[in-house]
Amino acid sequence: MIEYVCVVFPYVTTILLISTIYAVFALGLNLEWGFTGLINFGHVAFLAIGAYTTAMLNLGGCPLVLSVVGGTVMAGLFGLLLGIPTLRLREDYLAIVTVGFSEVLRFILLNEEWLTRGPFGIYGFDRPFQDVIPCQYYNISLLILFVAILIIVYTSLEKLVHSPWGRVLKSVREDETVPAALGKNVFSYKLQSLAIGSAIAGLAGAMLALYLQYIDPGTFKPVETFYAWIIVILGGTASNKGTIVGALILWTLFSATKFINPYLPFTAHQMGAFRMIMIGLLLMLLMMHKPEGIFGKKEELALSD
User: Fold this and answer.
1) What is the dihedral of CA 144, 147, 151, 157, to 10 degrees?
2) Rounded Cα distance, 22 and 234, in Å
3) What is the helix (H) or strand (E) element at residue 214, kind and residue range?
4) Coil, strand or helix: which one is 131?
5) SS3 assignment, position 204
6) How many other CB atoms are there within 10 angstroms of residue 246's CB atom?
7) Cα separation of 305 and 132, whole Å?
8) Burial group, residue 286, by CB count within 10 angstroms (0-12, 13-18, 19+)
9) Nearest CA to 173 among 38, 22, 12, 19?
10) Residues 27 and 200 sit within 8 Å (Cβ to Cβ)
11) What is the mean pLDDT of residues 54-59?
12) Please, what's the largest Cα pairwise distance for the chain?
């Protein structure tokens, strides 16, 4: 029994670590899409900016805490700069621009070896409390830290979206002509939402770098964005609680399906595709019976018309 616990506990810890990182990542997207109606298909770009900025600042001699803050701020700044020329246009322009931006950024990370080490990736940066906590207890300590970060992000977002500022975001999502007629600067609110959502994704990128201890351009492929979309849809649009639960469900499914590998005649590549098929079927069933998501409300569905 003790041996079983010793094997299972690190595995569960790993699932919770990854779920926590992606919950923070998806909370940024939920603010943009769920509460504001902004279609961001390049959310992974800000995950990459946060991760790379944190790693490079720390390798350059900056303390780890300031490096994480720098990665978060840099991701938010890029979200701000990206939103200025696009948010005055139709929603689909933002979707196109963000996809293009994420791919341009990935190829810059891949080819500019003088800055990012290209395909060799970045490693050797510090981890929090690495000289204090014994190796065998490090992951559980990192999980406690990440859960604390998730709680801070969640409670902050809850306060924001239930404030007058958050109510304006919801009105922008439903029909932006109404808040505009009431004298609200719709463009400014959209810009703020995109910048904050990007900064949260940058924070998740810093967390991912600290967990993996190594990052390279292959870590930030477009599919990472759609993991965030799956999490938001699964948990419920405009539900921060649902986003956290959606992240836990998604990564539990990804991990649990590995146990059926010996019973299926699939190669490793085919098994990866099979897991995605299972996730797709789950989403189809959810959309058929509960299109608003697990914790979502039908009246909160963005762009429902």
Assistant:
1) 150
2) 13
3) strand 214-215
4) coil
5) helix
6) 28
7) 55
8) middle
9) 38
10) yes
11) 97
12) 66
Contact 169, 34 (CB under 8 A): no
Tokens of 95: 């979707």
Domain boundaries defined on the chain = 16-221
SS3 42: coil
Taking the C-alpha atoms of residue 107 and residue 111, their distance in angstroms, rounded to an integer, is 6
- SS3 category, 133: coil
Q: Give the pLDDT band of residue 305 (cuts 50, 70, 90).
A: very low
User: Rounded distance, CA 1 to CA 156, Å?
Assistant: 41
Instruction: Specify the pTM.
Output: 0.94
Pairwise CA distance, residues 29 & 225, whole Å: 9
Note whether 178 and 171 are within 8 A (CB): yes
Backbone angles phi, psi at 122, to 5 degrees: -115, 135
128: left (phi over 0), alpha (psi -120 to 50) or beta: beta
Q: Say which residue the tokens 């569960």 belong to.
A: 12
Q: Say whether 264 sits in a helix, a strand or coil.
A: coil
Residue 304 confidence (pLDDT): 44
- Do the Cβ atoms of 194 and 91 come closer than 8 Å? no
Give yes or no for a contact between 41 and 225, defined as CB atoms under 8 angstroms apart.
yes
By DSSP bridging, strand 214-215 and strand 122-123 are: antiparallel
Give yes or no for residue 150 having a pLDDT over 70.
Answer: yes
- Residue 253: the pLDDT is 85
